[in-house]
Design brief:
α3 packs across α9. The N and C termini lie far apart (50 Å). The protein folds into two domains: 235 residues, NAD(P)-binding Rossmann-like Domain (Rossmann fold); 78 residues, TATA-Binding Protein, CATH 3.30.310. The strands form two sheets. Strands 3-2-1-4-5-6-7-8 form an eight-stranded mixed sheet, sandwiched between helices. The chain has a six-stranded antiparallel sheet with strand order 9-10-14-13-12-11, with helices on one face. It contains twelve helices and 14 strands. A hairpin with a 5-residue loop joins β9 and β10. The chain has 345 residues and is an alpha/beta fold. The structure holds zinc ion (ZN).
Amino acid sequence: MTAFDPERYSRQVRFTPLGPEGQARLAGARVAVVGCGALGSVVAMTLVRAGLGFVRIIDRDVPELSNLPRQVLFDEADVAAGVPKAAAAAAHLSRINSGAKIEPVVADLTPTNAETLLGGVDVIVDGTDNFEARFIVNEYACRHGIPWVYGGAIGAEGRVMTVLPGTTACLRCLIPEPPAPGVMPTCDTAGIIGPTAVVVGAIEAAEVIKLIVGATVGLGSRLLACDLWEGVWKTIDLSSLAEQGCATCRGGDFPWLEGRMGTQAAAICGRDAVQVAAARPGAVDLAALAARLQAFGAVTANPWLVRAEVEPGIQVSVFADGRAIVAGTRDESKARAIVARYVGA
Ligand SMILES: [Zn+2]
């Protein structure tokens, strides 16, 4: 068992179901948090405070002012500096708990990098805002038998489901196909209040802690759904779905993980922005790009990205892995054109 500071965690250890053995398991555990926005911030912060030994933070985005009402790991200085969320989160988390190993990964989870980014952890937690990433996580988890926790938050409504591959229903059992674009409410259309994210993130973190300490109570095929505005909490029994299983958790079908499903350009939930994947994955010479973009306007450059306003109201951020985020539009073809024009395909 890994050592931990008994004074620091004395109140947690006093909680009988956790105890010193559970605390030692937390210290030795490795968790990946996929997406570090509203949910991911709460999950990562709660787990690092609880004494998790290793937390990998995977996020593709940079913080904006409109994130601050609910994304508890970021502040105005992070927004001004244009530091990617994964890196900003890691800096804050290291100050919260210097004993935790935090691994920031500034990247979009894709079929190409999923095996690397999700590898070597005991539990995966969903902090994303999109079903494409969730389906990749679900398929990776089912393929490798890794437990994962699904969380969703929109408006005042939250959902949490823990997936134990081979035991419980999986995400595809619950949602056979991801909803088509425009069908489901998003945080753009329906908005979101901060407490929803805090509650859902906290429940997800509790599920992770239970998984790591080996608690079995309350870990079955079920979906927790809450509405903080209406004050309604429901637990929906999914055991009949689990008995049937689906093509992924029973049949070994992994269309998202194998790249047979997915998009190249996608509007980002909660932002007037589109992400454009690199046509050819590979490292970008950020210094050379920064020099080139200076002709169009003020450029922000740091080790992770180069950002410039290339046209009035249109801001492009190019990351070291070649990915770009075009802010100021939700038009995917316009975003692709902007990237082709200023960054090059
Ligand atoms: Zn399934």
